[in-house]
Amino acid sequence: MEYLPGNDEFAEDADWVINRLVERDIRSLPHEFLGFHQQSMPPYRGMFGEIVETEEFASAEECAKEVCRAIAVRLVSERSLGLR
Is the pTM of this model over 0.85? Predict the structure, then answer.
């Protein structure tokens, strides 16, 4: 899994959830799994967009890397325009 810098606590919480699933030998997630966790996150952690399913990426890690890359490109662009 990929996490943005500064989210060590969130990453640890997510790892605990994954460990509990592995220990219970759960192979697939209920359809509402991501929505439940998204709604349970406190608002001070930031905003979450719509959950989208896609076949575009071979793995969750590949998708996360692309999301992080897109965020970095946007931040650099905003900084160069003086928006940040």
Answer: no
Residues sharing a CB contact under 8 Å with residue 1, sequence separation 6 or more, in sequence order: 11, 14, 15, 18, 60, 61, 64
In this structure, the answer to whether residues 2 and 39 fall within a common structural domain is yes
Distance CA 67, CA 12 (A): 20
Q: Which helix (H) or strand (E) holds 16?
A: helix 8-23
Please give the residue range of the domain that contains residue 18: 1-50
How far apart CA 43 and CA 45 sit, in angstroms, is: 5
The answer on 31 and 62 residing in a single domain is no
Q: What is the pLDDT along the chain (84 residues), one digit of tens a residue?
A: 556 667 777 778 778 888 888 899 988 877 777 777 677 766 666 666 677 788 999 988 888 888 888 888 888 887 777 776
Tokens read off for 72: 């970095």
